[in-house]
Design a protein that fits this description.
The structure is a homodimer of 257-residue chains. The first copy, chain A, is an alpha+beta fold. Chain A folds into two domains: 102 residues, Alpha-Beta Plaits (2-Layer Sandwich); 133 residues, Pseudouridine synthase I, catalytic domain, C-terminal subdomain (Alpha-Beta Plaits, 2-Layer Sandwich), CATH 3.30.70.660. Helix content of chain A is 19%, strand content 28%. In chain A, β2 and β3 form a beta hairpin. In chain A, α3 crosses α4. The first copy, chain A, is globular and about 60 Å long. Chains A and B meet through β4 of A and β4 of B.
């Protein structure tokens, strides 16, 4: 039996999704809740790692094992064992070959910049506070250059080795609503810290440190030093996932393709 | 020299506004920031106590003493000494007789109920999560009975003795926007825990435990046992203040009277 969970979490208190020896993670707490609720000691596979402090509005995970709790009651039963900042919204029996990570066709992240002369205490740990006025039109112009199939070596941190630094970005939108600038990016996969490096680069464009037209040159350089800094984790949200919806009966926000 | 500050804070980490021997308070941190920034060891007078975990979107405080930092730069200088969950927005020189507490003509609090079958991790410590569906029309009907001059003994906790339990509520609105129910109340003053006791009583009305028409009887009883429970602190926000705006050049959200 293979069970998929849809959850959301506020990442502030956690060292990311993936289990670690030192530091509390979302995976550990979800696995402990499943063990206490269903009596199954299992490893939960998540749709992706998230860094410490990164949030998820729509996260999908799956686990194998026979759970006797009815699917429509499982979220409530798990939530009773979880802290308030991790919430299970849905659970579904899925085909045995479904894997939250490998079955995922695309992911959307949203990076939130609070662009205001003054802090907002209610956005502490929930957006990147940037007091200098940013030009969102220049940021959008720069963003367009990232869309498509590229070697994204210039906007990643070195971490776990990957086979290829080539990914396809389907869209990368910059939208201002008052003091908030949302950078929304969807791709078939992301390199380590790629969204935060792109966001830091767009912020440098927004304050005039990098001309929007320099992005193609930066990408071609494959040199991380050419772009802007890696923006802090607190502004990053996993916001949507794309699975083959005919097989997977889990309600994730649709991603435009 | 008398200086007024307009500030906002996320109350989650604090034991309320007022200085305490045991526990960190907003007043203590603001006083320490003033001492470090202006070299003035002073007592800051706040517009009201707030309980542990209560938030303020618009709070006013004042302090006496000569501060050599220009008024337009004081907020920024103080913010550099304050944690991100306390933010000074404005500072103004005010008449010597201005007192943030005693000059205040009316206060508006908003109590936020997250009324949804499922928790939202992003509302942890920021709203009262109430999964059972609430009838906001019944709550609004009950709310109307609180408006006006009443003895509010039935909806307060016993704390510091006060001269009179009579206050005037100018308005008490109940508004649903999706899963959020905002209870907005403005009065010339509030008894200890009064907004939380009114909110808990309205929640009991919303889930059918108290008929809306019972409110006048509950108020007349002056018996705290007749109403609903005191709703938790995390849902409470100080949202607006009313001062005599001709003398006090501080920008607070206007309150309709």
């Amino acid at each position: 039996m293979n069970t998929a969970l849809k959850l959301s979490y506020l990442g502030t208190a956690y060292h990311g999704w993936q289990r670690q020896k030192n530091g509390l993670t979302v995976q550990q707490l979800v696995e402990e809740a499943i063990e206490k609720t269903c009596g199954i000691k299992t490893s939960v596979s998540g749709c992706g790692r998230t860094d410490a402090g990164v949030h998820a509005e729509g996260y999908v995970a799956n686990f194998k094992g026979d759970c006797r709790i009815p699917m429509d009651r499982l979220p409530h039963a798990l939530n009773a064992r979880l802290p308030g900042d991790i919430v299970i919204h849905e659970s579904h029996i899925v085909p045995e070959d479904f894997d939250a990570r490998f079955s995922c066709l695309a992911k959307e992240y949203t990076y939130r910049v609070h662009n205001s002369p003054t802090r907002n205490p209610f956005l502490t740990d929930r957006a990147y506070f940037y007091p200098q006025r940013l030009d969102e039109k220049a940021m959008a112009e720069a963003a367009a250059h990232f869309v498509g199939v590229h070697d994204f070596s210039a906007v990643r941190s070195l971490g776990t080795p990957v086979r290829s630094p080539v990914r396809e970005i389907y869209y990368l939108d910059v939208e201002r609503r008052g003091d908030m600038i949302d950078i929304r990016v969807c791709a078939n996969g992301f390199l380590y810290n790629m969204v935060r490096a792109i966001s830091g680069t767009l912020v440098f464009v927004g304050c005039g440190k990098i001309p929007p037209g320099n992005i193609p040159k930066i990408l071609l350089s494959k040199d991380r030093e050419q772009g802007g800094p890696t923006a802090p984790a607190c502004g990053l949200y996993l916001t949507a996932l794309d699975y083959n919806m005919e097989n997977i009966n889990i309600n994730v926000k649709p991603i435009r393709r």
